[in-house]
Amino acid sequence: MPDLAEPPLEDSYRALLRAGEVDGGGIAPTSQQAPETESLAVLELELPMIGLQRLRSGDATERKACADAMASAASEWGFFQVTGHGVGREVLEEMRREQARLFRLPFDTKEKAAGLLNGSYRWGNPAATSLRELSWSEAFHVPLASISGEDCHYGRLISLRGVMQEVADAMSRVADTVAGALVENLGHQKAESTTFQASCDGTTCFLRLNRYPACPFAPDTALGLVPHTDSDFLTILCQDQQVGGLQLMKDSRWVAVKPHADALIVNIGDLFQAWSNNRYKSAEHKVVANTKEERFSVAYFLCPSSDSPVGTCAEPSPYQPFTFGEYRRKVQDDVKRTGKKIGLPNFLKPSNTVDGQKREPVR
User: Fold this and answer.
1) Burial call 31-66: b when 16+ CB within 10 Å, e when fewer
2) Pairing mode of beta strands 43-45, 253-257
3) Predicted TM-score of the model (pTM)
4) Distance, CA of 286 to chain centre
5) Cis peptide before 259, with omega less than 30 degrees from 0?
6) Do the Cβ atoms of 266 and 234 come closer than 8 Å?
7) DSSP string spanning 257-270?
8) Coil, strand or helix: which one is 116?
């Protein structure tokens, strides 16, 4: 008997598989059709580890060394880990328990219940035209402003609201601390750092609760989350410390991120790459599904308001002016039209093109 809590991912998978057999748009086993970067053995590496408590040191040299380490990792990797972040292990463990209860609700309830977590449920990828575009996952992508709002319902999961709010508040403090240090490291004063962060507040950011079900087709023909870059300024991630599965692209190779107890992962988003004039990089990443175990994670996205100009840390910038809303709409249009995100190359100035073709931004 099928599990009524599970989204119909297998149905989508088989439909795309059949379509691929007819028109050639599907995906063959990795050894046959995967890009060259995927055919190489995946390395498991430790991300740079940075203790945020050093930013609170009374020693200015120590504070600068911490900020320099974050800036170096943001430039070289686009990812790093932080400890001393102030988000307690107990609340993160409670968040995982509440997530498990939430995702055990019947699929129809998650998909159709009006107002359940602000109607923010999503699964798979409805726009997928091939297996390469299907994410074997489900999630609630909740605006922070809605967590305590009257229109955001929790049903019988009454305790979920308080835990989500506590996690969101704690991750927001981490994001503000990290973003502020990275902005100042580009040579900006504290006032400019505050202006940068003023466009990203509790009314504009998001908390995303993720679940990656066990997948019988992993890893050759199914991914938990397809390769992508984040469209925000900054992401704070608590990944599953037991199962793992996060991989990022570094030096044209996929690198598996080894889970680390008590550490949160920070990654640079597209907006920060643009704002920093490509000093910091928004690295492509994905989640590999597991054949036997499900995986949970929670992510905080530092985003500005839709009409907020992204701006630049200095001129000249390689990018045309754009707002966050314009960026998101272009991403959505590209995904609908081509099945994949194009992102920052859409906004390069004409001077950053070669023979009429938009040059890829530095990664």
Assistant:
1) eeebeeebeeeeeeeebbebbbebbeeeeeeeebeb
2) parallel
3) 0.90
4) 9
5) no
6) yes
7) E---TT-EEEEE-H
8) strand
What ranges do the domains of the chain cover?
Answer: 42-305
Q: How many CA atoms lie within 13 A of 266 on its CB side?
A: 34
Q: Which residues contact 290 (CB under 8 A, 6 or more apart)?
A: 212, 214, 215, 218, 224, 243, 245
**CB of 176 closer than 8 Å to CB of 303:** no
Q: Which of 276, 263, 274 has its CA nearest to residue 188?
A: 276
pLDDT tens, residue by residue, 119-128: 999 999 877 8
| Cα separation, 295 vs 242, whole angstroms | 9
pLDDT tens digits, 57-97: 888 999 999 999 999 999 999 999 999 999 999 999 999 99
- Give pLDDT, residue 20: 76
First-to-last CA distance in the chain?
47
pLDDT digits (tens, 9 = 90+) for 26-45: 444 433 333 333 445 678 88
Domain boundaries 42-305, corresponding CATH code: 2.60.120.330
Instruction: In whole angstroms, give the CA distance from residue 139 to residue 99.
Output: 10
Query: What is the DSSP-derived secondary structure letter of residue 153?
Result: B
Residue 353 has pLDDT above 60, yes or no: no
Concatenating the DSSP letter of every residue in 198-234 gives: HTSSTTT-EEEEEEE---TTTTTS-BSEEEE--SSSE
Residue found under tokens 């996205």: 301
Q: Which two tokens stand for residue 156?
A: 């019988």
Q: Which has more confidence, 238 or 338?
A: 238
Q: Supply the mean pLDDT for the chain.
A: 87
Distance CA 244, CA 260 (A): 9
Provide the sign of the torsion angle of the four alpha carbons 15, 21, 27, 31, taken in this order: positive
